[in-house]
Amino acid sequence: MAVTAQMVKELREKTGAGMMDCKKALTETGGDMEKAIDWLREKGIAKAAKKGDRIAAEGLAYIEVSGNEAVILEVNSETDFVAKNEGFQTLTKELASHLLATKPATIEEANDSKMSNGKIVSEYVNEAIAKIGEKITLRRFAVATKNDNAAFGAYLHMGGRIGVLTVLDGTTDEEVAKDVAMHVAAVNPKYVSRDQVASDEIEREREVLKQQALNEGKPENIVEKMVEGRVNKFYEEICLLEQNFVKDPDQKVKKFVEKSGATVASFVRYEVGEGIEKRQDNFAEEVMSQVNK
After folding, report:
1. pLDDT digit string, tens, across residues 244-262
2. Domains in the chain: ranges and CATH
3. Which residues contact 79 (CB under 8 A, 6 or more apart)?
């Protein structure tokens, strides 16, 4: 496969590595993006790729809780100015109430569903676009349910830049659930526990770590022990229960929730715009283009 400039650009954004290193990595791996990321990591050139690191769109994350049901959603706009607009915030809340009431299975189903005001969601959003003057999209949502002996933790950070919804079984203490949600907002784990991590993801990480150790010149007879230690560290980075609790780093999240007789059933974390590439405008050039018209 031919290595294109766009592929090099994408790899740079994902890894922070230099242009020539990215080009070489893609060349060495036949243009396979994931293998190129691993190649860079094995050479010590790039840290673990975090695909969702780039916050490239604006809007709001929002959470609505009603009894034993809750919904978290993300609605995007083009600018953060519009995200602060009262009309946009009202639209977001109305969409949350609608999603909680109807529980559509997909975004497509949600956009085609009829709201209590008689309007189709997509039409209602288009009306808001006409009024506000920016493109607006319902990007994603998740509906959660719990039993009577459980608690929702709802946390919105920076006015809705990050939203986290947790479900804790075995406790009705919403403050404990919210504390866990705050931790998730800050640390961004991928999974609740080790048993949720796919075996192929761990094997891939183990192979990368092994190559790193060998490239560091470590003797082969101690590489395996080093790798296992680093794999455990990897679990701590991606698994919620393995992490040091942000409000008390001397204890793990697992120990914190166990003190309340609880277990973490699930969590959903939305960071506005993650994974969406925002158009990079040169403001000076834009102004000059208008002046020269």
Report:
1. 999 999 999 999 999 999 9
2. 1-49 (1.10.8.10), 58-173+267-271 (3.30.479.20)
3. 58, 134
